[in-house]
Amino acid sequence: MFKTERPIFRKNALKYYMQNKDKTVLPHFISPPIMFLLWCLLGLLVLSVSVIWLWRVPVYLNEVGEIGTTSGTAQAPVVVVLLTQSQLSQIHPGMSAQLTLGAGGLQWQQSIVAINPKLMSPSELRQRYGLDTSVNLLVIQPSAVALIPVRFALPLRLYQGSIVQVKIQVRSQRLISLLPFLGSLGGA
Question: Which of 2.40.30.170, 3.40.50.1980, 2.30.40.10, 1.10.530.10 is the CATH number of 58-174?
Fold first, then answer.
């Protein structure tokens, strides 16, 4: 047999093989539209977590008050809100309160004008602020008092002793603190 010096592979095929060997080719497990969708979902997840982390929601002190009067010559109507000793540290004069007369009746926004931090007995509260003696649900223990004046025309003889629902925003907290198991991450 005779020997030839001719290579088995063509010159162009060998060159093409060497170029392809240098490139890194990753396998295609998912199609490009699905990959784009997954990146969009990751972006939405990051956005929602940041909103939950940064968004603050108000925390309200919900109490019930009664329309009474202050002991003075004008007999101006005020909403008397009874507070426990622990609630006194959360509120101060000037804080805004949302008041609702009766069950879903007239609503208005008003500021607290005074807080009497001295604990008073139920009978002293009834006598001093003209609270209705038939409404014994409100005055059951020694309480401190927050006074919110009624700034619009309200016939006192018709509304004295009426129940008023009072919501006072005492602080705000992060939304993430309301989620179970993640509440400790949110802080105050």
Answer: 2.40.30.170
